[in-house]
Amino acid sequence: MNAPTAEFSSTPRTDWTRDEIAALFALPFPELIFRAQSIHRRHFAPDEVQISTLLSIKTGGCPEDCAYCPQAAQYDTGVKAEKLMALDAVLAEARAARDAGATRFCMGAAWRSPKDKDLDTVCAMVEGVKALGLESCVTLGMLSPPQAQRLKQSGLDYYNHNIDTSPEYYGQIISTRTYQDRLDTLAAVRDAGVNVCCGGIVGMGESADDRVGMIHALATLPDHPQSVPINALVAVAGTPAALAKPLDPIDFVRTIAVARITMPRAVVRLSAGREAMNQETQALCFLAGANSIFYGEKLLTTPNPQTHADAALFAKLGLKSMPVSHVENDEFPQN
Ligand code: SAM
Ligand code: DTB
Ligand code: SF4
Hints:
The protein is α/β, with parallel strands linked by helices. It is about 40% helix and about 15% strand. Strands 1, 2, 3, 4, 5, 6, 7, 8, 9 and 10 form a 10-stranded parallel β-sheet that branches. The two termini are about 35 Å apart. The structure holds S-adenosylmethionine, 6-(5-methyl-2-OXO-imidazolidin-4-yl)-hexanoic acid and iron/sulfur cluster. The site of S-adenosylmethionine (SAM) has 18 residues, from loops.
C-alpha cells in the first residue's frame, strides 16, 4: 500500500479513506515527519505556537461515565464536586492568564450538557474574557442548536467537544452518550458559526487501528475542526482507563503527524499529558506539526508543566507565541 501524496493539494480533503490514513501511520518515521513538517510550513510559521490557558469553571460530580475522566462522579478519584464559579473569580483567572502570555482562555465544565440558566452565566464569562482581549473557548458537554447560537451571540470563538477515540472503541470508553450525540453537538456548533475544537485521547488501551479510526473520523467531518487537540491520557488512579498499558511516545508523535498531514490548516494542539513527557518528545511533537499547547500549571484537575519550565523549553527550541491573527487559518506566506 503506497502512502498518498494528494495531501499536497491546496484544498483540504475531507474524503480520506482509512487505508490512506493507515498508510500514513505506517510510513518510516523520517518520511512521516518530513511530510508533516513540509505541510506545516505551507500554512503556519514553524516557530509559532498558539498559547491557551485552561480553567475548570465547574469541577467534578459529572453524571457521565467517561473511562478516562477524574471528574466522573462514579469513580473514586479524590476530585470533589464544586459549584459553578462566580464571574469575578473566573475573570481574575483570565486576566492572570493574559498577563502570563496566553492568547486564548478555555473554560471547562463537568456537565453532561449545560442548563439554560448556567449557560447565561457562561455567556457573561465569554463576554468578560473577550473584553480582556483574549480569544474564548468553552467545553460544556452536549449542546442543542439554540444553545450553540446563544454562545455565538455572546462572542464565543471556539467550542471544544472531542470525539475522544475511534467509533469502534468508543463503546469501551463511554456508555452514557453515543458517538452520534457527539457528532450532533459538533454540527450544532459548526452551524452556529463557532469554530470547532475537536480531537481525542491516545493511550487508553486502544489499538493502532483505533488511532487510524480516530484521525479518520476527525479528517472526514464535513469541515475540518479549526483546532484539533491530541491528548495523551493523564492516568488518574480510580479511573478505568488508568489501567491501560502506557503509551509509546513515538506512537503519540505519529498521531500528531498524521493529524497535521490530513488536516493541514487545523491548529493541532499537543494537549493533555505534557507533564509526563520529556522535552525531546515534546520537541518531536512540534516537529510533527503540533502548534498549540495548554500553558499554566493546571489543566482542569491535573498538573501541567510549570510555566518557567515551558518558558525554558520555548527558549531552548526558539519557539514563540502565535499572534491571534495567524490562528484563523491564514495561508502563511511561502518564501
Ligand atoms: N464535560 C465536557 C465534555 O466531556 O465534553 C467538557 C469537559 S471534558 C473534561 C473535556 C475533554 O477533556 C474530554 O473530552 C477529554 O477528551 C479530555 N480529558 C478528560 N480527562 C482526560 C484525561 N485524564 N486525559 C486526557 N484527556 C482528558
Ligand atoms: C482537551 O482536549 N483537553 C483539555 C481540554 N480539551 C478541555 C482537558 C484535559 C483534561 C485533562 C484531565 C484533567 O485535568 O482533569
Ligand atoms: Fe463528564 Fe466531560 Fe469528564 Fe465525561 S469528560 S465525565 S462528560 S467532565
